Amino acid sequence: MSGMSRVMLEVDGLSAWYGEARVLADVSLTVAPGEVVTLVGRNGAGKTTLLRSVMGLHHQVEGTVTFEGRDLRRVRADARAKAGIGWVPDDRGIYASLSVEENLTLPPVVSPGDAWSLERVYEQFPVLHERRAFPGTKLSGGEQQMLAMARVLRMGARLLLLDEPSEGLAPVIVQRIGEIIRQIKASGVAVLLVEQNVAFASTVADRHYLLAQGRVVESLDNETFQSRTTQLLEYLGI
Amino acid sequence: MSAFLQYTLQGLAAGGFYALAALGLAVIFGVLGVVNFSHGACYMLGAVASAVLLDTLGLSFWWALLVVPVLMFVFGVLMERLLVQWLLRLDPLYNFLLTFGITLVLVDLVKRRYGVSGLPYQLPPGLDGRVTVGSVSLSLYQVFVTLFAVLVCVAVWALLTQTRIGMIVRASTEDAERSRALGINVGRWVTPVFGFGIGLAGLSGVLAAPFRAITADMGSNFVIILFAVVVIGGLGSILGAVVAGFLVGLVEAYGQAYAPSFAQVLIFVLMALVVLVRPSGLFGREEAA
Ligand SMILES: Nc1ncnc2c1ncn2[C@@H]1O[C@H](COP(=O)(O)OP(=O)(O)OP(=O)(O)O)[C@@H](O)[C@H]1O
Ligand SMILES: [Mg+2]
User: Fold this and answer.
1) pLDDT at residue B287 is higher than 60
2) Could you tell me if B134 lies within 8 Å of chain A, comparing CB atoms?
3) pLDDT the model gives residue B289
């Protein structure tokens, strides 16, 4: 995983504030194509803020975010999405005023080669086809999570920012999400995954960053991560 | 019975003004995050413009119905480009204050130019009669306003639900930031949506012109009721704005008929009840509370 060409996302020296309060301090990380990288940390560690900063939704930031070699500092959120970054927010971000199908087709297709067709989405997620005319928020939590992920895949995103996709979902659904992540990873899509579910994280990820009080305190490969799970859980207090 | 039907029609006609204007207020709030206090003044300008166009150019009501909303759209576009856009990045309070200031300026300009007594405006020929349905005689103009307002609401509804632009506006109305993060250039729709919302306020004013006293102050009470409408319907809900508009029109009309001194109060009692039972309004999303 070395060499610039193998890096899709590079975050370098990123700090973020809410007013006077600094919630990210000098965070650096990389994600390569086809790589699944998790960001683990307890509540309030700054995980969501980091994803929002990468997406261009948080403006009180310093440091650089580079995507496929392009400096994103002056790039607005909508242009970042068009560049190929797909955001799946912690609340899933499904529109109540749009049908399931409209939720899927709202984002523009940003790279036709990578984008999933509507047929492919429906084939993978038959329940979305069944409920395509329903308001998006009439779906169950798990289905909304599928919809949120399918939405950015249909857009053709090459980097997915997933904010706690397993949160509050039944084990069987979490397993299904794991399958999808492995599948999109195999197609070369990169994933930056925020997780508190350490067991789940270790089944899908290649590498992990531990975030504590806005700082990256450790960077581990999955093997080390697995061998130290108990210790890490204790450290994180989760 | 006959009286009750007449009050109902009166309520629906007044509700038509509220529904159209509230629709404009709701899309502006949704897409720009701006609480447009000047909406009442724009409604007033619509009515004043109709009267002035008739007086100076002899343009009939029917022409006003066509021309005034377009003029108000242009007015809205200018207002957004010249003033509102500069404050969009700041706390929403700034644009609330700006549009409040715009209201004061507009009202005073109209007062200076046209005085404080009402401008005359006749019911348009052809609509000044009454229709008799069974034993009930109804004002033809009120029937027209009700039907026309419903028609425009349906047309706007179709635009919003059947077109891609409409889908983008609905999505951005619900959550503009999220739409941006999904690759929607929300900024591109800001100016047309603002103009469109002001155009609807103007249209509402044209419809009110033959029906209400046209004065510089006619919008100040109107805008307060509009805010009640939007709260009742649910902030950010387009359907809610329309339904609550007609509902408030009815409550007001029944109030004026059966409890004149409480007519205004009733609207706010309704608002308080709705907010108590459903803090996010009739059609608002629950989490928006
Ligand atoms: N809008 C805000 N205004 C002020 N402070 C905020 C805001 N949002 C988050 N914070 C603070 O910033 C810090 C980081 O929050 P963030 O949401 O990024 O954490 P997180 O790691 O995603 O937590 P969680 O696991 O609870 O989702 C927290 O201390 C939080 O209280
Ligand atoms: Mg979070």
Assistant:
1) no
2) no
3) 30
Of the candidates B171, B180, B238, the beta carbon closest to that of A78 is on: B180
Rounded (to 5) percent helix, strand, coil in chain A: 40, 25, 35
Residues 4-63 of chain A with CB under 8 A from chain B are 55-57
Could you identify the residue written with the tokens 């650089």? A64
Tokens of B143: 């029937």
Half-sphere exposure of A220 (CA within 13 A, CB side): 21
Please give the ipTM for the structure prediction: 0.91
By Cβ distance, the residue of A81, A97, A108 closest to B170 is: A97
pLDDT, tens digit, 9 for 90 and up, residues B11-26: 999 999 999 999 999 8
- Residue B131 vs residues A95, A234, B144, B250, B264: alpha-carbon distances, Å: 45, 80, 11, 20, 29
Domain definitions of chain B by residue range: 2-112+162-288
Pocket test for ligand 1, best of A49, A164, A167 (most atoms within 8 A of CB): A49
How far is CA A221 from each of CA A3, A213, A225, B244, rounded to the nearest angstrom?
A: 18, 21, 6, 57
Residues with CB under 5 A from ligand 2 (ion): A 48
